[in-house]
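Lab notebook, bench 4. Still working through the backlog of constructs that have no structural model yet. Next entry is a single chain of 113 residues. Request: give me the structure tokens for it.
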Amino acid sequence: MKNDRWVYYRDVKPEDQGNGVVRRVLAYSADVMAVENTFSEGAVGALHSHPHTQITYVVSGAFEFEIDGEKHIVRAGDTLLKTDGVVHGCICKEAGVLLDIFTPAREDFVEDL
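Model written out:
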């Protein structure tokens, strides 16, 4: 799907990440990537960091996010900025969907970068 101009949701393979999280890598190039993560209530996005800047858009649900030691509850329509190297994670309070945009693309999510 790298550099595909049109990426149809029906063609995107869901990847079970375990513990109530399903990832779908959407459109991407080497410079930018869109990723959808579907969370079941109670699912945890463990605290982590990576050398990518990440913007998260909350599509639905409610999440308690921690970014660099600060915690907030976020809901549909909210956005979060996580600069490269910052520690972040979340707990899903109400089942929902997050849309993550990464720059550069997460090479660890795909084989063809």
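Notes after review: The CA atoms of residues 2 and 25 lie 10 Å apart. The first strand starts at residue 15 and ends at 18. Flag for follow-up if needed.
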